[in-house]
UniProtKB/TrEMBL annotation:
InterPro entries to which the protein is assigned, alphabetical: TR_Rrf2-type_CS, Tscrpt_reg_Rrf2, WH-like_DNA-bd_sf, WH_DNA-bd_sf
Listed name of the protein: Transcriptional regulator
UniProt keyword annotation of DNA-binding present: yes
Source species: Aliidiomarina haloalkalitolerans
Pfam families in the cross-refs: Rrf2
Length: 150
């Protein structure tokens, strides 16, 4: 299984916001520069994170976004389920699958998927930052400084 780039971007954005220790709003441009991403993709992810209530967005000249919840309250299973769309990992009802009546694969995959999400529920965005939060903040600032110098 591989997470979509969309989900990857969402997790990176949340980590970046969690690394900030100031009240300044983050911009789409800033995220694009730090992670070398397309503004179009970042816009979509930021909009979705806002709809989920994970970030607060402000439009306009001095606009931007910030975390609306503490990193300790943002569970990874929730973020990934929401950004991935929680679609089935296998398609047992497609025309090419003739084994459905006797196949146990679907049940095994569903159980594995639930165990995956149960495991991720034990972790939050804060856990991604613990021990390395200051180091990540430094890396993000260096990337931003480098991007602005170019």
């Amino acid at each position: 299984m591989q997470l979509k780039k969309y989900t990857d971007y969402g997790l990176r954005i949340l980590m970046y916001l969690a690394s900030r220790n100031d009240a300044k709003l983050t911009t789409i441009r800033e995220i694009c520069e730090v992670f070398d991403l397309s503004a179009n993709h970042v816009n979509k992810v930021v909009h979705h994170l806002g709809q989920l209530g994970l970030i607060t967005t402000k439009r306009g000249k001095n606009g931007g976004f910030s975390l609306s919840k503490t990193p300790e309250t943002i569970h990874l299973d929730y973020v990934i389920r929401q950004l991935e769309g929680d679609e089935p990992w296998i398609d047992c009802y497609s025309s090419y699958c003739v084994a459905v009546p006797a196949c146990k694969l679907r049940g095994l995959i569903l159980r594995g998927k639930e165990q995956f999400y149960q495991y991720l529920h034990e972790y939050t965005v804060a856990d991604l930052m613990s021990g390395s939060g200051a180091e990540l903040a430094t890396i993000f600032r260096q990337r931003l400084t480098t991007a602005n110098a170019e």
